[in-house]
C-alpha cells in the first residue's frame, strides 16, 4: 500500500525533473531502481559520483535485489561524500 500523498509525489517529480536527466521522469515508479538518483548525484558532483551502478537498467525490473543494490550504492556514496 502506497501512502505517499499526491502532492508530495508531484513535488518530488517536479524537483527531480529540474536536473539534466537522460529522459524526464513521469512516475514515482521510475525512481525505484536508483538510476535516476545516480544521475542526479553525478550531476551534483561528477568527479565523486562517476562510473555506473552495479546493476544495468534492463536487469533492475526483474527482481527487487538489483534495485536494492543500486539504491544502496547510491545512498552509501551520498552519505560518504558528505562525511
Automatic annotation (TrEMBL):
| Any Pfam family | HOOK_N
HOOK N-terminal domain sequence ranges:
9-72
Q: Which InterPro entries match?
A: CH_dom_sf, HOOK_N
Tell me the domain of life: Eukaryota
* Record protein name field: HOOK N-terminal domain-containing protein
Q: Which organism is it from?
A: Phyllosticta citribraziliensis
Amino acid at each position: 500500500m502506497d501512502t505517499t500523498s499526491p502532492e508530495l509525489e508531484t513535488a518530488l517529480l517536479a524537483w527531480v525533473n529540474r536536473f539534466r536527466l537522460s529522459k524526464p521522469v513521469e512516475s514515482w515508479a521510475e525512481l525505484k531502481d536508483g538510476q535516476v538518483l545516480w544521475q542526479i548525484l553525478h550531476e551534483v558532483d561528477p568527479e565523486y559520483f562517476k562510473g555506473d551502478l552495479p546493476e544495468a537498467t534492463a536487469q533492475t525490473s526483474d527482481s527487487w535485489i538489483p534495485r536494492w543494490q543500486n539504491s544502496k550504492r547510491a545512498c552509501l556514496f551520498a552519505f560518504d561524500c558528505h562525511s
